[in-house]
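ok, trying the design again with the full structure, not the truncated one.
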């Protein structure tokens, strides 16, 4: 068990319709570091189901129980859309950000940061299909995989898998480079995908059409 007296508190919010890897990817990196203590939060304690309903994770605390975490990692998913109007979550996020070391997001988690007023005038990233939604909140969308504003204590990551990259960067910032490299080695994160279609600019029209088809089937 980690020593809570010295561990930095990292929280990952859960909500109905979250994307699993958005939260679990960063979790797998961050929980490897002895000086980081990761907790999943929710509107209430208990199981929260992912965007396809197939996976449930347990929220071990509520937002109100952890009002001032050291780090926020806000995942994305279709469930972020109602959160943009959920004042309970937005007020918690504003209050938390006032004292965090870093407030971060993965995928459409940045829409919630934006709705809370944390991205006004800043470049930020999200899933490539959601740049327009991000822009509504006053952010300037960028296609970079991880976008940092360290003076503002804000980092946003692009779609789903990019949360792993961001979490490694978080470890470097919170601990040091060697710790980040150790975490990378522990999870054997050495991407060598069999295809090169992981960014919108690299995908052909047939691939994009299949994405649209599959996304439609999940709604």
């Amino acid at each position: 068990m980690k020593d809570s007296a010295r561990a930095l508190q990292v929280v990952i919010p859960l909500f109905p319709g979250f994307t699993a890897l958005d939260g679990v990817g960063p979790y797998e990196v961050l929980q490897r570091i002895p000086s980081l203590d990761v907790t999943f939060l929710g509107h209430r304690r208990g199981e929260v189901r992912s965007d396809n309903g197939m996976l449930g994770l347990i929220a071990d605390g509520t937002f109100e129980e952890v009002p001032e975490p050291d780090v926020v990692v806000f995942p994305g998913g279709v469930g972020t859309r109602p959160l943009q109007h959920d004042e309970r979550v937005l007020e918690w996020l504003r209050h938390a950000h006032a004292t965090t070391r870093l407030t971060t997001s993965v995928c459409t988690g940045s829409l919630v940061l934006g709705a809370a007023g944390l991205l006004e005038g800043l470049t930020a990233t999200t899933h490539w299909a959601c740049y327009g939604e991000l822009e509504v909140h006053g952010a300037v969308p960028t296609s970079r995989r991880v976008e940092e504003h360290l003076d503002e204590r804000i980092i946003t990551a692009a779609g789903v898998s990019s949360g792993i990259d961001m979490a490694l960067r978080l470890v470097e910032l919170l601990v040091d480079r060697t710790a980040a490299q150790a975490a990378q080695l522990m999870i054997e994160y050495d991407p060598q995908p069999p295809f090169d279609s992981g960014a919108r600019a690299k995908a052909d029209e047939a691939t994009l059409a299949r994405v649209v088809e599959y996304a439609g089937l999940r709604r």
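Keeping the full-length input from now on. The two ends are 40 Å apart (CA to CA).
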